Amino acid sequence: MNFDFSDDAKTLGEQARKLFGERSGPAKARLAMAAGAPAFDAALWSEIAALGWTAARVPEAHGGLGLTAEESCQLADAAGQHLATVPLVSVLLATEALLIAGTDAQQAKWLPGIADGSVIAVPAWSEPGAVNPASLAVKAEGHRLTGVKSPVADLPGAHLAVVAAAGPDGPSLWLVDLADAQVETVETLDLVRRHGRLTLAGTPAEPLGTAADYQAWLDRAAVILAWEAIGTASAAMAMTVDYAKTRVAFGQTIGRYQGVKHKCADMFIKIELARAHALHGVAMIGSNGAELRQAASAARVASLDAVSYCAEEAVQLHGGIGFTWESDCQFYYRRNRTLAAALAGRGWWADRLVRALELRNRAAA
Amino acid sequence: MDFNDTAAEAEYRATVRAWLEDNAAEYRQPPATPWKLEEFVRRSKAWQAKKHAAGYTGITWPKPFGGQGLSPMHSIIYGQEESRFHAPSGLYSIGLGMCIPTVFTHGNPEVIQRYVPKALVGEEVWCQLFSEPAAGSDLAGIRTRAVKDGDEWVIDGQKVWTSFAHASDFGIVVCRTDPSKPKHKGLTMFIVDMKAPGVEVRGIKQMSGGSDFNEVFFTGVRVKDTHRLGAEGDGWKVALTTLMHERLAVGGKPRHAPGYATLMKLAKGVEAPNGGPAIEAGDVRQRIAASYIADEGIKLTQMRALSALSKGQMPGPEQSISKVVVAKTMQEMAAFALDLAGGDGFVTEGVDPELEKLQGSYLWSAGLRIAGGTDEILRNIIAERVLGLPGDLRPDKDKPFNESVSA
Fold first, then answer.
1. Global ipTM
2. How far apart are CA A109 and CA A111, in angstroms?
3. Ordered structural domains, chain B, with CATH
4. Do B264 and A264 lie within an 8 Å CB cutoff?
5. How far apart, in whole angstroms, are the C-alpha atoms of residue B379 and residue A181?
6. CB A261 within 8 A of CB B380
7. E strand or H helix at B174, and its extent?
8. Residue A254, domain extent
9. N- to C-terminal Cα separation, chain B
10. Rounded to two decimals, what is the model's pTM?
């Protein structure tokens, strides 16, 4: 039984938590918010690229380190925990798409730039009115895409988009060189992470794999995003537990009251349930296991449950101060919405989980 | 990452499985028609003796106490394999899982020599006498008195929720020996002969209809001072040794309890309130997902513990979420499933066996949320021991016990 991250992946995670702890976190998020525009910390981006984090998952043949999904998940956890003001998670998600479905030529063209940090690649799934990743309005005609993708995380400043578009066998992925595309910023509830609108008007695009590859990508993306959500949930919990140890009301620290401590315990319970499924997801990516779909879906749902509970109760347990503009609670509260919107909602993934279980039952029957 | 045994674990598993295949079949418990108590005890004793002869008892115990001196992983592997054969081991789970480790940790050499071997071979059955009517979550509020009389102690009082008291030969009992001390300080643990004069065992009928526990009344029961476990006044510390073992024992979802798979099966066969099969209704699918996340999440969390044990490490604090998740999920899932079945989920006469299981689970889960630490106590433990929050205010903690209670 070896159901845990490798020591190497854990070490990378610790390194990332340390650097992001020093260079990102609520203080940096606040600077971005004060400047009136979500942030991209170019210096930090260069530094993490130099450390090889954007190269972690890229094969050695394309200038990367050829590491596993475990490393990506540890990085996503660290980025989520410290609200990192770099587009690392988006790049990790786009990298998975190229790994699953890229032709040799596509990989050779884009992966070296992703590895050295010069190419920021982002997935573009959302579109106005879409709640179901299986039913999209953006359409391909020949090698050209038409329609609108929004909100797309980390789109402003990105070089390459991995766009989901409708196709005859269901949606599939396309590569769009953003030099050819119209990009505008979009304001969202998240005041720290940049989002954009990608308007495609017969924009040149290359197909990236099949409809089945898109489905496989959704599962891997759900696992990575689950780790980001677990990181954010853990930070909200830690901040709240610290506060409950120091804030005094009715003559004692509020962490003594069961009404407070039981909520903190529930934060821990929800985070650990999510962690178990997210770990299952990483294990299934690593072994190309048949249970990836159910593990990924469960990880996505459980991690959204954890981050929404932690973010909401963090404000509640801080009381009035938690509701002020000056409190850091709002970063987690708002980021919780970002994570929920990142890749179809909780309801869709819960349904996908049950469909995976039904398929498994039918196969076993 | 993988879920596989190491080479050494796989070898042990294969040996265990081969032995069980040759030996366990005749001891299989029929799940539909459970044995009567006498039959259960007789078969359990025979099975324990057979296991003992083959070296499958006291797997993690030190060799000087008759154990095998093996790792927790060996014990877990044996347990996993044995559970596939439905062999009767429950009679000894408390005695050998909790009581006897307390005896060999805190007892004197004569007592260890007298009791440990006979317990291990299954000749004598043990129970644990801690809870009382006024000492449940607040376990240190024990009122059963033990008063010293020469080289003996005289015990008077009442214990409750004692599993297998009616089948037990001996028990470990926590008593108040000095009411003038604060409540955690005036307690002492003893070995008591369950057949001694003055011991009376009465079954408790639970709201679920079954009788899995007992009340035990002590009236002038005499215990030799040599049968004291640990020093006078150290009973609370000794009890904590015992309870550490209980937390591991009362863990995951009970093996036969209905889970998300039951709900899926049921939802295929009943109609949703707005028409169509319930399995296609959004709220039903959300509930199936929630149930899967809880049940499988706990199973996977246990895999994390096994991975740590397999590497010779201590499991992490996440293990503490297990029972609090399992018990409440059982209750919610059973209620939801019975709702889906409408009146059929309510009627017990001629009920479908799957629905009967759900009815049973609904009733039993109410007890499971209390047994071995209530939902509330377990949340306190997570908050205080894992997250480091301060303990509740306990106004009686440092006061002499006889000043804070009128008993």
1. 0.96
2. 6
3. 7-88 (no CATH), 126-242 (2.40.110.10), 251-370 (1.20.140.10)
4. no
5. 53
6. yes
7. strand B170-176
8. 213-364
9. 57
10. 0.95
